[in-house]
Design brief:
It is built from eleven helices and eleven strands. By secondary structure, it is of the alpha+beta class. The longest helix is centred in the first third of the chain and has 19 residues.
Length: 395
């Protein structure tokens, strides 16, 4: 029997303070894109007791009522109860927004290839909005090609939100989930521990809360897993701190982009460090990360590897990537160098080409801002569009 190890990932609900900020930032981006698909947006949000501060840069012909966007987003999340330190109607909204830096704007609008190399290729016109490195990842261990611990943590967090809006109205919007899995020989063999912490009203007893969450959240999600028998020994900890009445931004200040591991692969794969929310697709932190997830998922779905991690890097103002890197962790059926060649031939990683291929000027970003940017079939970067063409590289 191989010795097992433990690995943990977490997720958070839509009412977590940092996720409140992510959703506000992406709601502002969506509103700009609805009116002007060429909008350049880089917006950060901070939320604390009865206050939301929006700051950043927006260059757009759109007319944005940021105050209304903030309040509507907070209301939709569920912060509507007065007197608990954060509610949509009485919070103060402060807006500190300027135009995009002209130095950045010119490098995005006219790439190095156009300025110095006189390229006439349409996809070479737009340069990367920043330098940086991005990662993408996929694994065959779940139907959505995501690691089991983060996939399960997201399912639990979504289920908390569902029961909050239906069977357990005594729950409030803030919450976190955490899943620890047992791994042996590189495979998940069971669920060791599930941790649920959810905000609730003052009248709810801890025993009633634990019973309700156990029956309505944990039990149905675990029952749907089809994991090996070892998962029946799962330890479940529900609100281990006891009382969780004070929550949301009034208890813990939220900031955009502070849950980047929740947004991606739960720590199972590497991360370049750049956040996604509040940024339009000219920022390769977002668009290239989406593209690499798309490519990695298609590689795994094509049977070229069981696990695939990709990295790409950019120079600000240059359209072509500086580097592309592939790691299949010994699971590939062809050499990683073959996959790099396949990626370069079958996928265009210039920012303009990514934006076109994945329809990233369409206003659908707020829906990404809670429960992960990956593993959800409604997004373009989750589509298996290149499986057939990649199979030709199997040799």
């Amino acid at each position: 029997m191989p010795q097992s190890r433990l690995f943990t990932s977490e997720s958070v609900t839509s009412g977590h303070p940092d996720k409140v900020c992510d959703q506000i930032s992406d709601a502002i981006l969506d509103s700009a894109l609805r009116q002007d698909p060429d909008s350049r947006v880089a917006v950060e949000t901070m939320a604390t007791t009865q206050r939301v501060i929006v700051a950043g840069e927006i260059s757009s012909s759109a007319h944005l009522d940021i105050d209304a966007i903030v309040r509507n987003t907070v209301r939709d999340i569920g912060y509507t109860v007065a007197g608990i330190g954060f509610d949509a109607d009485s919070l103060e909204v402060q807006v500190i927004v300027d135009q995009q830096s002209p130095d950045i704007a010119q490098s995005v609008s006219q790439s190095l290839e156009v300025r110095e190399e006189k390229s006439t290729d349409p996809h070479s016109v737009q340069g990367a909005g920043d330098q940086g490195l991005m990662f993408g990842y996929a694994t065959d261990e779940t139907p959505e090609y995501m690691p089991i611990p983060i996939s399960l943590a997201h399912r639990l967090a979504r289920q908390i939100e569902t029961v909050r809006r239906t069977d357990m109205p005594q729950l409030r919007p803030d919450g976190k989930t955490q899943v620890t899995v047992k791994i042996a020989d590189g495979h998940v063999i069971g669920i060791d521990t599930v941790v649920i912490s959810t905000q609730h009203d003052d009248a709810t007893s801890l025993s009633d809360l634990r019973e309700g969450i156990g029956e309505l959240v944990v039990a149905p999600v675990l029952a749907d897993l089809r994991m090996p028998p070892a998962m029946t020994d799962t330890r479940v900890l529900i609100n281990p701190s006891g009382r969780f009445v004070a929550g949301g931004p009034s208890a813990d200040t939220g900031v955009t982009g502070r849950k980047i591991i929740v947004d991606t692969y739960g720590g199972y794969a590497r991360h370049g460090g750049g956040a996604f929310s509040g940024k339009d697709a000219s920022k390769v932190d977002r668009s290239a990360s989406y593209a690499l997830r798309w490519i990695a998922k298609n590689i795994v779905a094509a049977g070229l590897a069981q696990r695939c991690e990709l990295q790409v890097s950019y120079a600000i103002g240059r359209a072509e990537p500086v580097s592309v890197w592939v790691e299949t962790f010994g699971t590939g059926i062809v050499d990683d160098a073959v996959l790099i060649g396949a990626i370069r031939r079958e996928f265009d990683l210039r920012p303009s080409a990514i934006i076109e291929a994945l329809a990233l000027t369409q206003p659908n970003f707020q829906s990404t801002a809670a429960y992960g940017h990956f593993g959800r079939p409604e997004f373009t970067w989750e589509q298996l569009t290149h499986v057939d063409c990649l199979r030709q590289y199997a040799g």
